[in-house]
Amino acid sequence: MTRWTNWAGTATASPQRVHKPRGLAEISEAVTDVAVDGRRVRALGSGHSFTPIAVADSDALSLVHWTGVASVDLEAKRVTVRSGTTLRELNAELDRLGLAMTNLGDIDAQTIAGAISTGTHGTGARFGGIATQIAALELVLADGTVVGCSADRRPELFHAARVGLGALGVISTVTLQCEPAYVLAAEERAEPLEGVLESFHDQADANDHFEFYWFPYGRDALVKRNNRQPAGTEPEPLSRTRQFVDYRIMENTAFGALCRIGRTVPKLVKPLGKFASSVLSAREYSDTSHRVFVTHRGVRFVESEFAIPRESLHDVFGELRALVPKLENPVAFPVEVRVAAGDDIWLSTAHGRDSAYIAIHQFVGMPYREYFAAFEKIASAAGGRPHWGKMHNLDASALRERYPHFDDFLKVRKEVDPSGVFTNDYLDRVLGPIT
Questions:
Q1: In what residue span(s) does the FAD-binding PCMH-type domain sit (predicted)?
Q2: CB of 112 closer than 8 Å to CB of 86
């Protein structure tokens, strides 16, 4: 029996069997065997979800041998990639093809299937999450059959499966609508939080990709503005030395040391947070898009994130600021604020509305439950939708009220997996058991 744990250590499992298929036929065979024996199976991905969404007690499906680009249509700028491919591997291959993703989050360790299944997103008022870049999907259903879906072919399955939580089948390939490779100019600097909030909507609209980080107890926010450059622009990246010092030393080694001190001596968290906020360094550079989007995360944390209507950002963030000083335990990690365009994907957190995302974090090993529960209450009052891969306490009854197509999703789920081959305890909570 193999013990599995996710990146943050918030979910563990000891599946009785771990399947490692090397081809589509082997994926189908594994699923069929599980279904015939009345067992359940979950695809593991890379373990970067903070929830138990990938926990498999019976059978786990590892796609580490099912990776790489399956086909390319350069004229249409579409790439079909096997589901176990990590975003890091995908970005490297797209580089070689002269292509790029339209938008990305800041972590590239996830598999493409795991990223889309949980609704992974980046930031940008005119851009949707990664799932909005999907042109087609291929899935292995509970009976072992392989089906394709797109906007024109099995559209209801397509609406559901683009953010499907792994509840509909095993994604075997993803066809992505890409674009020509481009350069992003990055500007990152500390600015007074009050000014950032006052100009938030103008800044979000004026920049292609805009976000900020606020260190609780500090007066400043780290603001990041990333903007696309004209075709043919030569990148001007940070020097290797500057990258090493800023990202490896300051944002990981040094920050991790501050967090460990705060975990050991909690009364030091507040002054350390103020210090971290005050020493943020400014930098401007440009580079190939994915090298700007992605940031190395060497300090481990737990996270909760809610998508709220963009117009609710100031009210929700204001209540969060008022909450932090009242907590019994201090907060060692920053709050991240982003935006995304609305979309039509049934279980996307941005379904039907332009959204602001507020993500809260705590250093591993430090108390977080009071903080996360209080924030969930604040965000829920604004109709907040929790990120499917990040920590929350909501169940199907609460989530049904926040997703207009929730029952449509359940109908598709019932059709393609009537016996619950792909469910687990987490899905039974957030979607309800299959009846």
A1: 11-181
A2: yes
Q: What is the pTM of this model?
A: 0.95
Contact 110, 157 (CB under 8 A): no
Query: Terminus-to-terminus CA distance in the chain, angstroms?
Result: 31
Tokens standing for 82? Answer: 């096997």
Dump pLDDT digits (tens) for 184-227. Answer: 999 999 999 999 999 999 999 999 999 999 999 889 999 999 99
Q: Which helix (H) or strand (E) holds 13?
A: strand 12-13
Q: List pLDDT tens digits, range 276-317.
A: 776 677 899 999 999 999 987 778 999 999 999 999 999 999
Name residue, tokens 């440009």: 286
Residues 6 or more apart whose Cβ sits within 8 Å of residue 96: none
CB 216 within 8 A of CB 266: no
Helices (H), 214-351: 240-243, 255-264, 269-278, 289-293, 313-323
Helix (H) or strand (E) holding 214: strand 209-214
Are 349 and 305 in contact by the 8 Å Cβ rule? The answer is: no
* Residue 212 to residues 226, 227, 272, Cα–Cα distance (Å): 12, 15, 19
- The position carrying tokens 């009220």 is 401
Residue whose entry in the numeric block shows the structure tokens 């306490």: 393
Copy the structure tokens of residue 360: 């809260």
Q: Which two tokens stand for residue 293?
A: 């989007």
Q: Which residues of 292-318 are buried (b: 16+ CB within 10 A; e: fewer)?
A: bbbeebebebbbbbbbbbbebbeebbe
Structure tokens at 266: 């909690």
Q: What is the maximal distance between C-alpha atoms in the chain?
A: 60
pLDDT in tens, 134-165: 999 999 999 999 999 999 999 999 999 999 99
Pairing mode of beta strands 59-61, 41-43: parallel
